[in-house]
């Protein structure tokens, strides 16, 4: 059997390595039009910023290593230009010599990845100072240009993972950084209220944000010197980084009749097989499916690409591995803020037809007397089943382990109540006695069973509509005077039982404190006193004020 893999980054090399581990009988050949193999795209910003000291750290393996270790022949700078599946032949062009040759296969694997988008008007000309951040050659080009021209002002188009990581690293280099983002928030896959917390950190570190905007015109011949945005902003720059997203490289697959899914990537089954016999697709060129809904989704991440490659390599050589789907779990760092997410956002869950309970849980990641710092967890559960559907977390430490616990729990269909019963590690340097995960489970489960929550968005909308509601601030007079919810009645928790007669038991009531705990205690008091409909403001006044600030900034 001869296996040909097109593409040699995370997915392609994983296919080859796993296939070889399973059998010594197969001939395995990999073609890639790039110069480098098995490299870390995600590490590129950190090399540019200086946290990684050598490009060799991002390219630990080469074709010679693979040949010696796995007896896999990898041909770099070789572009597959045509596939004839009827005869099971491919046409390959040697990009160094121009020579064209044919090769044959029994099994073909598309690991062609995804190409970075070049948004208008950058697609209308060639500019020496405009770069993508997609491969090691891009890294070399950026560093070469920077060394020769010493730029000090950078314009980044796009505010996803790469855009934000580049912003951080370029600020660390001492550059003036501006981001232009099409959507009205950074990190479009997140909910806007959580992404806003990222925006605040960016601005606090001197990054200029132009959200809900695009570049309209470019000034400069051969190099971009200035751009004018659709909203009229004039931005001078020395270098432009395009990080506006990617598009799966499906052209070769389309030519032989491979089905392209609704996401725009190659449709595959759980064995990573396409609709064409003996043809597989893995990594950023292939779509995955949601662990929660079972529906196709596209999440081009290196971690997923590695898994898909291993599964395909196993299946091709007689194994029984299957792809079990993804949650779209991701994490990044922007300056000192860590940001993670997994599963569905509130927006996605509602679009999918779920009625969700939404919790904002604000807790220290470990004992405050040992330097614990605040985490903000936004978690949601399905009201009908109690199943946890997704979470987003921002904080300064401890985000990674909480998002991984939640990803694991969601994968195994945990309900909100299950989170409280997890036997998680505790010691003061690492956690609180009840971990933020435990609190998340407790509060969500309470909300599903008699202690409903109200989000700041729901409260603002209710008041905006003029609906009858009474809001009770249970904090101290000092905290109340600093800032409170519109039209709130101030009754500290210690006085609530005695003063409950000042409130109507028939009117929907919202209690709140600074972060949510005392508000929940007040909610229980009023429920036990016979109040008919009592909500706790999720995340308390702190979360409410953050939401108002977001509305004001984006209005």
TrEMBL record:
Pfam families: Pyr_redox_2, Pyr_redox_dim, Rhodanese. One of its GO terms (molecular function) is oxidoreductase activity. Residues 465-553 form the Rhodanese domain. It comes from the Bacteria. The keyword Flavoprotein applies. Its cofactor is FAD. Keywords: FAD, Flavoprotein, Oxidation, Oxidoreductase, Redox-active center. Belongs to the class-III pyridine nucleotide-disulfide oxidoreductase family. This is Pyridine nucleotide disulphide reductase class-i signature.
